[in-house]
User: Fold this.
Amino acid sequence: MKILMVLFLFILLISCSDDSTIVEKEILLEYQERTSNSFYFESTAKVLVIENSIGFVNISGGSNSSEVSYTLDKTVKVKNSSLAQDAFNKIYLDSILKDDTTICKVISSIDDNTQKCNLSLIVPYHKPIIFKNSNGGVTISNHYSEIYAETDNYNCSVNNHNGSLEAHSTSGKISSSIYLPINGFCRCYSETGDIYLEIPNNSTLNIHLKTESCTTTYENLNINIISKSTKEVKGILNNGEGNLYLESKKGNITLKGVGNANSNDYSNSIKKEWYHSFEEEIDSIKIFRPYDYKEFPLTSYRQKYIFADNNVCQYFVLDPKDAHHYELGYWNYKSENQILEIQDSNYNLVAKYKILVLRTDLLKMVKY
Assistant:
């Protein structure tokens, strides 16, 4: 009888043990935090590498200073609010200098799917950028130097870019509005993602569009066609000084010209910082170059203009005591006769030019 009782209790214990293995799924609560900070781009660094394996990245070109400001939008999932701050502290931005490269990387010591962090940066717009190790895609805007981007299965969007571009994706869409410098390049590759590109009509490029199983289209561009089919286009736009190559094996490719192909509307292309490069002049034609085009020789005074959105500008003022300084004003461009006017803050005329040539790396004007 005792043996039977022990056996019954043993079976009952096993049965209870089996039931106890059924555990309810752990409930995690979501918390968010935003932090902002900045660091300085080392003077010896020539390239900025940006990585974020746990979220989206937004990059904007700022001033020509060496400061990089950033914001981290962190999201964590924990059991209760008392654990949230510890989880937030384990997500941060690290920047190190390696040889001539500054590496900027979002770090997380949490090795699971309970955290996410989107990164926004304002960077020096004249420094080359390399973007990789993405887990959310990237948007880059208002930059004026070379960009290299890898986004795998996420989208890559490059807007209002003045400089060369190389972009790679697996399935993510690549889209860009770009002003290529003379002898510049744009190379975009995707396995299955679509590629969409806008360029000014007065760009001067060798063009090659290619896909294996979808279509290639171009519009509002006077391309001198070398060869053409639905899957591949080769041709020359204007003088063909730069190179544009777009390829997606299983995605559509669209190339669009912006503006009237026969017009001289420079109102967007002029928006940057220009230095008077009088050393290059041989007659009355004024030559201006982007501020980072070269190392300009020292001189007692050099005219400078910064043309920005909403027709706001800054112009450099000569001071008899060498206290040269910028003053705020406005600029106005008349496309019908290519006249550029610069006015002070009270709309009084400061200077008036007729634009002869405008490229991403050259502005030629005569006083009018």
Remarks:
- Residues 1-14 have pLDDT under 50 and may be disordered.
- Residues 2-20 form the longest helix (19 residues).
- The longest strand covers residues 29-40.
- The two ends are 118 Å apart (CA to CA).
